[in-house]
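Supplementary Methods. Inverse-folding protocol.

Structures were first reduced to a discrete structure-token string of length 298. This string, shown here, constituted the complete conditioning input.
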């Protein structure tokens, strides 16, 4: 390569040159027809009508008809696209596992209950001390919720969490012989356990793919990647279960959660480092080589 022609590299932080969101430009001709005919139409390319500034972002200019054709054929749920997303996540997070420290199903259940509205880092600071103090589920069942509150106070919402943990312990002891149940229905019968917690325990400890964990990271990233348009966790899970192969449900959950912590963070996602960048049309990307879809919002 001749001297002085080295392409500029993408910035690793902040919004990049060339990442422009098309605003307000009305669709014309064939584009307008497609927009009226398809719910996915109306998405404007990120650099529509503008030449990207940074060399690395240079793209072949497309005619209006070509752009309209791309819009009309784009299917965010196409099996090949979903397969590529899964492959990208596998590449980013090989050998992924649950970030919550645990040694058995009961400890994982408690840690997951404590992780609501709290970081895994904080939970992992609390649980070793907690399980040293109360090593068995019977120890927890013998407590009054108020006795547990000081030990879990730093995880937030400690009064409700204390009631849930002690209530779950009592039911595990009285109804399930001291063993954490292994079915969705039975897990959901425990106080403080909803589908998210049940999916974590079933998938991570019992290796049963009964559902997909939908937390704040999975919600945000699934919407950015246009894998769902829903906002409700149960509906998001239903959408994802339709397109992710069942044997990948648990790994997919953990990979997306890690992705949400490491790269696809809530504010200022690190798109220049993301293996999914070419597949992602999120409206709030910080760097893009592909069209931006205004509807692809977290
Ligand atoms: S490209 Fe950016 S917004 Fe899209 S998945 Fe990657 S980090 Fe998230």
């Amino acid at each position: 390569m001749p001297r002085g022609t080295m392409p500029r590299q993408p910035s690793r932080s902040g919004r990049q040159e060339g990442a422009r969101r098309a605003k307000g430009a009305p669709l014309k001709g064939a584009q307008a027809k497609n927009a009226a005919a398809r719910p996915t139409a109306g998405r404007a390319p990120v650099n529509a009508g503008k030449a990207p500034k940074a060399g690395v972002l240079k793209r072949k200019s497309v005619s209006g008809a070509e752009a309209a054709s791309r819009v009309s054929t784009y299917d965010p749920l196409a099996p090949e696209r979903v397969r590529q997303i899964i492959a990208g996540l596998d590449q980013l997070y090989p050998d992924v596992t649950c970030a919550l420290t645990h040694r058995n199903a009961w400890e994982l259940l408690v840690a997951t209950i404590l992780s609501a509205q709290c970081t895994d880092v904080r939970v992992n600071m609390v649980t070793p001390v907690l399980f040293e103090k109360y090593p068995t589920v019977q120890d927890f069942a013998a407590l009054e919720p108020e006795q547990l509150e000081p030990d879990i106070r730093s995880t937030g919402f400690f009064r409700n969490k204390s009631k849930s943990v002690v209530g779950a312990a009592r039911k595990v002891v009285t109804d399930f012989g001291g063993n954490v149940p292994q079915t969705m229905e039975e897990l959901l019968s425990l106080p403080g356990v909803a589908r998210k917690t049940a999916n974590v325990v079933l998938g991570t400890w019992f290796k049963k793919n009964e559902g997909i964990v939908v937390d704040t990271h999975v919600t945000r990233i699934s919407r950015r990647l246009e894998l769902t348009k829903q906002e409700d966790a149960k509906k998001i899970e239903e959408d994802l279960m339709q397109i992710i192969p069942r044997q990948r449900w648990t790994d997919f959950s953990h990979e997306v959660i890690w992705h949400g912590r490491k790269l696809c963070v809530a504010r200022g996602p690190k798109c220049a480092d993301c293996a999914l960048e070419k597949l992602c049309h999120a409206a709030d990307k910080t760097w893009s080589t592909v069209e931006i879809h205004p509807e692809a919002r977290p």
